[in-house]
Design goal:
- With 462 residues, the chain is α/β, with parallel strands linked by helices.
- Helices cover 46% and strands 17% of the residues.
- It has helices at residues 33-40, 97-107, 119-126, 132-143, 147-157, 160-185, 194-223, 237-245, 288-303, 319-327, 347-352, 357-361, 373-383, 398-419, 424-442, 448-456; strands spanning 8-12, 23-29, 41-43, 53-60, 67-76, 87-93, 112-114, 225-231, 263-269, 272-278, 306-312, 333-339, 363-364.
- The strands form 2 sheets. It has a 7-stranded mixed sheet, with helices on one face. A 6-stranded mixed sheet has the order 9-10-8-11-12-13, with helices on both faces.
- It is flat, with a radius of gyration of 29 Å.
- The chain starts with 7 loop residues before the first strand and ends in a 6-residue tail after the last helix.
- The structure holds guanosine-5'-triphosphate and magnesium ion.
- Guanosine-5'-triphosphate is lined by residues 231, 233-239, 252-254, 256-259, 280-281, 339-340, 342-343, 366-368.
Amino acid sequence: MELHDEETIAAIATAIAVGQGGISVVRISGSQALTIGQSIVYIQGEENWRSHTIQYGYVMDEKRSERIDEVLVLTMQGPRSFTGEDVVEIHCHGGLIAVQRVLERVLSHPQVRRALPGEFSQRAVLNGRLDLTQAEGISELVGARSRKAAQLAMASIDGGIQKRITSLREVLLDQLSELEARVDFEDELPPLDSTKVLDELLIVQKELQTLIEDANRSAFLHQGLRIAIIGCPNVGKSSLLNRLSKRERAIVTDIPGTTRDLLESEIILKGIPVTLVDTAGIRTTKDEIEKLGIAKSREALESADVVVLVFDLNLGWTNNDQVLLDQIPNETNHLLIGNKADLPINTDLNEQNNKSTAIEACLTFSALTGEGEEAFINALLTTCGAHETQGIQIALNERQRDLASKAAIALEKTKTVAKQKLPWDFWTIDLREAIHSLGEITGDEITEAMLDRIFSRFCIGK
Ligand SMILES: Nc1nc2c(ncn2[C@@H]2O[C@H](COP(=O)(O)OP(=O)(O)OP(=O)(O)O)[C@@H](O)[C@H]2O)c(=O)[nH]1
Ligand SMILES: [Mg+2]
């Protein structure tokens, strides 16, 4: 296998956090990896730098007088390594300082530089060790915030996306060669049935459509869901956020207008990452600070995947609640939560306020006792279509999905071409475009600049 003759690079391949993790790994990749490893690690006893062996030793400072860390060194000669190049991994102690010092020591060598984000993975792809979608899968697995997201990332690492898209692309390539042959040698070949060709193309288009829909439905697994809790002052929005977060995240008082700013809490609901956004209770007020808070509440309402409108069951459904409900954009998913279910219903107030259908439609809840919490969480996830992701086996990421859409649109155009009974070379234009887009997904038709862009979104060390 031909390796890219590039500079040797190094980075910390594990997460960096204070006091966390017993060990960390500094990865060195490139033609000088071994030389560098040998020059900075002192091995007690007999040295053995054969491929795929582990040695015990110390990373020494430049004067070879101070021990920087006690380490294990793993040697992997290319092409049998992650990047396909020579790789030396130094397994040192974790935390912040030890591993940073080891990395600095490595980088003090003149023949190595710091790796760019995603550069190890990029080299793995360039050297044919990984397909592009597999490399993306690794990045998604590392970043996965839910079990389902991790499962889908694994499917990508296993080549699920690559296989599926490649097979669709091959169908198109076959059709293209048939059509191109007709363009050049129409008279010498048996005639092609345009309806049949179109059918074949539309089968591919339909499959792409399914993949796109699945990607849309599972997008929140990667990005997480954003849930805005809105309502009139004092109905218990902050109390609800605290209950779901299982801690006292927001200030709760019996004074209306307590929350002034947006406050976010990251939680996992049944394996799905969720950002809860507590907002200022919306009302007419003269208080300048509160006004600003209310403006932010309105913004939160517009950018949320789901809006949870909380009202006070004790007070019943008020005109102000109705005004808020009317402000939720039509296309936004929303849930009505009647809070304070633990309190007896104040019949006087309930009489005064509307006996709205909202009361019948709402879920009853108590932020105080936790009553109705399970039903609320289920309803929330159902509203976002979360349960629909169960059957999804592979999910394109945003980049892949956009390209699949481009391909599907190009194939859609062939319908018009067919209807207008245009000559074959018109068909080939759209077909080539679809093939090209699918090739960008798989990495078959991708420039180095595009790869740079894709991998720059990866973390350093990947
Ligand atoms: N009995 C009862 N009291 C509740 C419940 N939820 C909230 N409260 C009380 O209602 C009052 C207001 O609660 P908050 O959570 O601060 O209400 P909020 O909607 O965030 O209010 P603002 O931030 O002012 O808009 C507090 O005194 C809470 O203790 C509940 O389920 N039952
Ligand atoms: Mg509040």
